[in-house]
TrEMBL record:
It comes from Microlunatus endophyticus. Its cofactor is pyridoxal 5'-phosphate. PROSITE patterns: AA_TRANSFER_CLASS_3. This is Acetylornithine aminotransferase. Pyridoxal 5'-phosphate binds at G149, T150, F175, D260, E261, V262, Q263, T318. May also have succinyldiaminopimelate aminotransferase activity, thus carrying out the corresponding step in lysine biosynthesis. Keywords: Amino-acid biosynthesis, Aminotransferase, Arginine biosynthesis, Cytoplasm, Pyridoxal phosphate, Transferase. Its main location: cytoplasm. It catalyses: N(2)-acetyl-L-ornithine + 2-oxoglutarate = N-acetyl-L-glutamate 5-semialdehyde + L-glutamate. PANTHER family: ACETYLORNITHINE AMINOTRANSFERASE, MITOCHONDRIAL, AMINOTRANSFERASE CLASS III. Belongs to the class-III pyridoxal-phosphate-dependent aminotransferase family. ArgD subfamily.
């Protein structure tokens, strides 16, 4: 047998075959690439607006070489911006050493990330008469690794079914993903109805309404699932105290509190978990988007008795927890800590909101959200037109609702970059207004 020696250098001809293909693809220009997209990629997202080929920091360049300021971070994903050197060297070092083993085996990076994540979700020790919270400081916490937010929520859904109860309370306007289980707890009828029947026993109540929550939860409730801020619904922030009340209500009923921090977590709102703002310790928390800075990874973390509800054979994933994804997560956490990016998210988010408020523009009703997860609520339904005008002017934002702009830049964004957008905003709003008139 003539096997390839392990020391064989990567074949230069095979590498150049890949780069030739890439160069040929780029050389086609955006019109031809978008045409190829429409013919060979399923139309689940509608037509793409641009073709991007390169990113660095908070900027991305399209195939024609035009630079754009990425104020959306690939949908709250690129927390450290594009091509971050620490993430890059962590990932390349890991994949050159050990890229994948099955879940029959452990790897040091997987365990290290699990330990970091369980440390982040455990409650901080609190001063004063918080005996209950103090006791929670020693609470057990365990991670199931997945590859996306949807999958993290799917694992959480299965945890709820192991409680011996089946009823789940979710909220109007919620978004938790598109697999059948995650969709079952997602509210939007447009997403749900074509795929019914979905896993059952899910009830939707108004978001942010404590009385509705109290009325809905009883001793048949397995779990309440909540986003701390509804991102896909347009950065909807519940009243202060809502999550703390949800914690109280679920604890009293013996139900799990499942907090979906896929969009709000990993520093996006200026904290590792947005729900920690109210001192809430969930039973289950899901993370994804910002966790791998673009490398696919999701995590479902369960605390206390919930940490033991999934046992051997009850769930699994081939790729979940692979060492490359795990080291990406470790790199993200390390850089957020080293560069004090939680503080930057708070400061830059406040600056963004203050700048926009100071414009005192007739089309801007108010700015909502926290840290660098912000919604600009407009006085008319021109958000998609504003997002298009922004893209033409080199700014990436989106319109989760007809009257709401979402701004979720990398946590590394600078004051200068924030100001460049807010200075351009009146012009973008004017263009959208003009296009409508
Ligand atoms: C994006 C999102 C999801 C789904 O995550 P995917 O990685 O797209 O599967 C789930 N929950 C929330 C709150 C999200 O914002």
């Amino acid at each position: 047998m003539t096997g390839i020696p392990a020391s064989e250098p990567a074949s230069t001809s095979s590498i150049s075959a890949v780069s030739d293909q890439l160069a040929a693809a780029q050389g086609r220009g955006s019109a031809a690439i978008l045409d190829g997209y429409s013919r060979s990629v399923m139309n689940t997202f509608g037509p793409p607006k641009r073709v991007f080929v390169r990113g660095e920091g908070c900027n991305v360049w399209d195939v024609e070489g035009r630079k754009h300021l990425d104020l959306l971070s690939g949908l709250a994903v690129n927390a450290l911006g594009h091509a971050h050197p620490t993430v890059l060297s962590a990932i390349t070092g890991q994949i050159a050493t050990l890229g994948h083993v099955s879940n029959f085996f452990a790897t040091p990076s997987q365990v290290a990330l699990a330990e970091r994540l369980t440390g982040l979700v455990r409650p901080e020790p609190v001063e004063g008469p918080g005996a209950l919270r103090q006791a929670q400081g020693s609470v057990e916490a365990k991670v199931f690794f997945a590859n996306s937010g949807t999958e993290a929520n799917e694992a959480a859904f299965k945890i709820t079914r192991q409680t011996g109860r089946t009823r789940i309370i979710s909220t109007e306007g919620s978004f938790h993903g598109r697999s059948m289980g995650a969709l079952a707890v997602t509210h939007n009828p447009k997403y749900r109805e074509p795929f019914e029947p979905l896993p059952g026993d899910v009830e939707f109540i108004p978001y942010g309404d404590v009385d509705a929550l109290r009325a809905a939860v009883d001793d048949r409730t397995a779990a309440v699932v909540l986003e701390p801020i509804q991102g896909e619904n347009g950065i909807v922030v519940p009243p202060d105290g809502y999550l703390a009340e949800a914690r109280r209500i679920t604890s009293e009923a013996g139900a799990l509190l499942w907090i979906d921090e896929v969009q709000t977590g990993m520093g996006r709102t200026g904290r590792w978990l947005d729900s920690s703002r109210e001192g809430v310790v969930p039973d289950v928390v899901t993370l994804a988007k910002g966790l791998g800075n673009g490398f696919p990874i999701g995590a479902c973390i369960a605390l206390g008795p919930a940490a033991a509800l999934l046992g051997p054979g009850s769930h699994g994933s081939t790729f979940g927890g692979n060492p490359v994804a795990a080291i990406a997560g470790l790199a993200v956490i390390a850089v957020i800590e080293r560069d004090r990016l939680l503080d930057n998210a708070t400061a830059m988010g406040d600056r963004l909101a203050a700048n926009i408020t100071a414009l005192d523009h007739a089309l801007v009703d108010h700015v909502r959200g926290r840290g660098l997860l912000r919604g600009v609520v407009l006085t008319s339904d021109v958000a998609p037109a504003v997002a298009d005008a922004a893209l033409d002017a080199g700014f990436i934002i989106n319109a989760p609702r007809p009257n709401v702009l979402r701004i979720a830049p990398p946590l590394i964004i600078t004051a200068e970059q924030i100001d460049s957008f807010t200075e351009a905003l009146p012009m973008l709003l004017g263009r959208a207004q003009g296009a409508r008139a």
